[in-house]
Every structure is written in C-alpha cells, then in structure tokens.
Amino acid sequence: MKLDLPASMHTGATLDVFTALEAKGGAGCVRFVGGSVRNLIMGLPVSDFDLSTQLTPDDTEAALDAAGIHHIPTGKAFGTITAVVDGETYEITSLRRDVETDGRRAVVSFTTDWTEDAQRRDFYLNALYADIRGQVYDPTGKGLEDAHARVVRFIGEAEQRICEDYLRILRFFRFSAAYASSLDAESLEACVRLRYGIDGLSGERLLQELTKMLAYSGAPPVFNRMWETGIMSRILPALEYDPVQSAVLTRMVQTTGDIERRFMALLAQSAQGQVYFNGHVSAVTDVLSRLRVSNRTRQRFEAIGTVRCALDGGYPLRRALYDYGRDAVTDEAYLTHAQTGADLAGPIAVLEHMTVPEFPLTARHLMAAGIEAGPYLGQTLKRIEADWRAHDFSQSVIDRALDELNKQPKISGE
C-alpha cells in the first residue's frame, strides 16, 4: 500500500532527518511508525512523527552529527534519540527486541529486523510503518486490517503483551476510546483477568493515561465498561461505581473539552465522589494522593465543594463570585449540570454577565480618615468589607463607614 504523505510529513526538516540517517544506513533504514501512519490510514489528523530505524543509537547519533543536526539522548538506553531541526522534534528509536520484562520496564537489545520490532509492540494498528516515499509496511500482516476496521487488538497473545507492561491495560481502553467502535472481546477478557497488575503501576503513569483518555469523545462508554469489569477499582481504589450516575461523564464530555472538568465528572460517578464534591472529606482524597494529582488541581476540585455548600446555604451568587472566584463557581455549575442534567446555558450566561465586585477601600483611605498604620487599621478594613459584603456590596455602606471615621478623633495604630 502506498500513501500520499501530507505536507506535514514531508517538510524540509523531516527530509533532512531522513537524508541524514539514510546516508549512514542506506535507503529504507528509517521509517515513520505508529500514530502518524495509523492516523493517516484512518483518515484522521496526523501530529506525532515518531521514527524507527535499523541504526543503533550510537550510529543514529553519528549520522545526525555528520549532518550537523542537533540531537538529545532522551532515552538512549532504550534506543531513543531525539533530533531537533528548525524547532521540530523527531523521536528516533532503534528497532528493538525485548530481552526481559517485569510488567513495568523492559530490558531491550537492538535489531535490524522490522518484524521483530513490530511483534514487541502493543496493538496491531500501532505496528505500521511508512517510508518517506509513502510506502506502507505491515510486518504483522494485521495492522492495516485493524486500522481499516477500527479494531484495537493486542499483537499475538494478549496476556503476554499485558504481562510485559501492565500499563497496556489502560492503553487498550484509551486507544479503544479513540479509535474503536467497540471493545475487542478477547483483549478485554485478558485485561480483566490481569487487572491486578495495575496495582504495581505508579500514580503518575495512571494519571497520565486517564487524562489522555478523557480527551476523547468516546471515553464515557469505555470508562463505564472499566467500572463494570472492576478495572477502575484498581485505578481508583476505595471508590465504588454508582450505575445511577453513569451519565455524569457523558454530559460533561458533551459540554466541555476541559480535561479537569471531565476528571471531576469521572470521580463523581462514584458515591464517594458525590460526597467529596458536596464539601465533605472522603476516599477521593486518598485517590488524588495516589494519582499524584497536583496541588493546583486538588484545590480546584476542593473549591467545588466549598462553593456548593455556600450556595446550598443561601449564599447570594454575587457573593460566591467575590469570595471564591469566577472559575470555581463556573466549575460548580458544570458539575451540577453533569450530575443532574439541569440547564447549563442559563447559569453560564448569568455568570458571564455578572461582574465581580471590587472592594473600593484600601488602607490608604482609612489612613486619610485618621487611622494610623497598625493592627487596628487592618481590623477596621476587614470589618467594613464584611459589612459591605453582607449588604450586597452596597456603596452606601462604604460612604457611611468613611463618614463615621472622618467624624472620629485620630486613632493611634498602636
């Protein structure tokens, strides 16, 4: 099969890299691999330009040096050298075979055999190669078939592929959410049987896969299947799926591309997540710690519970905006919509047109009224602000306070 490569795969920088490597290893010693070839065949946007080569990492570096191309040994022990040309980066990985695997990392040796390299990859549709002339190579004999059929299947024995790296369980679901019309039954069964292997994966790797999966519109039914088969209970331990809440993530995906908001909805599919976002500490806190979620993200999630409790307690909307910020109040509106199906357009329109009040007084105003710098000044400023908030940010509160201060004798800040 031969393809017409898009301009993005045929830039001057790309040609420079291919020319440099072929000068060392001969014509055809380097090919595009994986995502770019798969997406091109499936008629999808192409963005990643990973390359495979028959050259060893040392020879790759020598070839790039000879051509004056800057390069970085980003993963040389595993065969990967990154070339940088005109601001474009190219991950160039030597063909490999696995010598030893432990479910997380592999010890590799290098080969010149394209079929050996293909057989160690995860899914058939990812084991496709193309040269700079557009000729496609399918060493497994099943990659083109699966790409055209939109099927995500493990290469060879599914259990063997999974045992080599248990992260492939999550990759199976991620690629299925992105490319497949349904989950391959044999691959799914293997993932379920070996789901215990997820326990040994780092929180960072789990979070990375979850957030990547949440980027796809096909994610909700895939996540629901992961909950139903017990996969999610290994990723988000202590959270119990609530089938009644199965539509929460679907609604969120349909309304926003914000990955963190989608992650909120994923957590809210569990009863414990409901409790968490209603302002109560729950098992979700432990889950976020396990996944090594950033403090910024954790604070964003916690703010929803704070805002929700305030609004449920009768807090005026403008006061919530003032106290907690527009972003937190907007997040709460999105999550309420996802959880209940309530109208979203109306609340968002109100929020967009509602201005956040700005407290008009500063320490300088009070000092001009005769209060010297010191603790009393700060206390007075806070008291006036609290009164102003309590009276719906009325200017009359400010005017009255300043009038009273101006009538008072000079007060020392001591």
From TrEMBL:
Keywords for this protein: Magnesium, Metal-binding, Nucleotide-binding, Nucleotidyltransferase, RNA-binding, Transferase, tRNA processing
tRNA nucleotidyltransferase/poly(A) polymerase RNA and SrmB- binding domain segment(s): 183-240
BP GO terms, sorted: tRNA processing
Coiled coil: none
Cofactor(s), by name: Mg(2+)
One matching Pfam family: PolyA_pol_RNAbd
Superkingdom, natural source: Bacteria
Single GO molecular function: tRNA binding
Annotated family: Belongs to the tRNA nucleotidyltransferase/poly(A) polymerase family.
Protein name: Poly(A) polymerase
Biological source species: Asticcacaulis endophyticus
Phylogenetic lineage: Bacteria, Pseudomonadati, Pseudomonadota, Alphaproteobacteria, Caulobacterales
